[in-house]
Amino acid sequence: MQAQVETPVVDTAGSATPLETSFGNEQPVVAVPYSSLHPSPLNARTRPLSGIEGLAANIHAKGLLQNLVVHEMKGGRGKQRKYGVCAGQRREAALDLLYAQKHIAADYPVPVRIVSDGEALAISLIENSEREGLDPFDVLRAYRMLAEEGRSVDYIAALFSASPLTVKRRMKLANVSPKLLGLLREDAITLDQLAALALADDHETQEHIWFDANEWQRQPNYLRQAITRAEIDASRSRLVRFVGLAAYEAAGGYVRRDLFSDDENAGYIADAELLQKLVAQKLDAAAEEVRAEGWGWIKTRVERDFLELNRYGRLRPVQRPYTDDEQKQMDALTAQQDELAEKLEALSEDDESAYEEADRLNEEIERVNAALIALESVALVWDETQMGGAGVFVVVGPQGELVIERGLVRREDASVLEAAGADVTGTPEAQAHDPASAQAPKLRPIHNAKLCQRLTAHRTAAVHAELLAQPAVALAALLHYLVPKALPEHFGRMSAPDFLALTGTNNQDSLLRAADDLGTSPAWSAVEAQRARWVAELPAKRADLLPWLVQQDPGATLLDLLAFCTGTLLDGITGEERPHAINALAGALNLDMTRYWTPTRATYFDHVSKARIAEVVATAVSPKAATDLEKMKKADAAAAAELRLAKVAWVPEIFTDREIPAVPSWGGRDGEEDEEDRDEDNDSGTDGDGADSADGTDAQDGDDADTEPGSGAEHINDTPPDTAAVNAPTSPHSTSPSPTTDGVSIGQSGPLAA
Predict the structure, then answer these.
(1) Closest among 110, 20, 93 to 51, alpha carbons compared
(2) Which domains does the chain carry?
(3) 666-679 pLDDT per residue, tens
């Protein structure tokens, strides 16, 4: 039964008293029925309301904690007065929602203060403009006090109409050192800076990092670096993505969580040995599943080494006829694909509303293409009688995905399989003795010199941006250049191209000349932001530079400055698509060009042939989509290709190649022995193992250039390993069948970690 509501009768029928003489003579707070409340034209707030659902939940849980301010309106019936809400519009809207949800009745008592019409607008303006929100310090203090009372995260979330994640973030801030929280009240520290310091669990570390830092070192990103410099950034590590933070924690690993990042892998880990162990276990488990398919041998690797893969031939799968059901599905999907393509083609380019429809159609086309590719791969099967003579590589891919390379054939097994009728391609012996391949005419390059320069300028800028994020790699790169020169008796006297041009020439102008669209690149934006920062922070006079440098923190300031300067000396522009020294640095940085470059008409398709456009679409989307382009003019095909690849992570091979030029050695510690070895090789007429081609790389079968859907491998470009560029030379541990403590390249800490 509802409580009886007593509504005092207030005489406001007469003319309103002027505000100047009666302001402040408000009536006391009384209760009126909810049904008597109505929106008031005298409310100063006209902006659409927000957060009503959360406020309604709060009122439902705790009641209305603050009264509304109302004035009497005309139109009341009998003793039921009609009141306009001039202050408390959001609370009124929350009550409306509760009434609609049947949580309150029409006679629900609402506390109000009744004022005259003449005062209503002024009071509404005062309440909305003079109200002061809680100080952030007080908010965090309240959260901490509630937690100390034993209140759960869900309880506090409901109380404040916030998500549990928001509550966890605020409680994390509330547990920062009291000294630092005191600075928050004085506006001497920001919430973003507190969030960075909250990565450290102990107050002593938080205070040490803050009070020992100079002004620019107190920027949130540098505070975060100071805390996590010796740890692996889980959001950037492909090995962490492969294993998963949940599995790492379940195995007893500690994660320094970054609650203030929306990345699911946000956090930092220090136990590289445990991560390495989990990677090996997951690879071994995947290898056992593949072994059950009947392959002759299985090898696991933590990184895809194209140089190693190119030493193997490829067993081709056999395409069986489609079943009746599969053929019906294929026909239906093909018809659906054609229908969607026609609808997309019919859209008007001048109709702005057509963009959303084009996006929807493209998503549908991608879904149909994926279904077609999956159906095509089902019909590709391996001959069980041949599988015993071939093997599989199980590898961690560049994005942390599982990559399975099936059908690899050792050199010594190729002849046996071919004698049994198998189709084996890519074996160096077969190509080395193929007279047709020796006399093949020189092919026209895919990318002309100007486009190569444009693309490699983007690659160079992206490497620079990654060096800024991983300054320890910049230090390693500089030492890579200096150490062999300082210790020629150890490394030998070599003459080889390097990715650094230590002539003091800044590469800014050369990059912009090579790629006029570089200014819009995310990599260039990151580099220029750092350039502006150092221009502002470095002393104006060169004479003051050395004293300034000596006073800086070598682990933060100097290392970051070194990374920026090293990036400005990168020499990565080339007019030819061939092995380049900068590929070694790109590999060390785990460079992912999809973060910095997108294929569009302007950046790529307008600069290549129509045949190349079709080849790219066939590889990245589907062969059927490429067939549709053949009927178009080149400009239309380029535009269609841009649409098809809008949501596909594809980049040209020049961005994924990791092959570096051969390093000729003119002498070294064992120069005489080396000369004798070379003489013996020359006498025998072969190179070291008698299997490699004259240019020092494994020969490849040009006909084996299409992706094998049956291989089960997942590639960023769907590029088959036997046609992709090779990686840097393998480490001494790369021949072990599974990763070991030495074999996994994550033993180091900090930005160099995988």
Answers:
(1) 93
(2) 29-224 (1.10.10.2830), 238-278 (no CATH), 449-597 (no CATH)
(3) 444 444 444 444 44
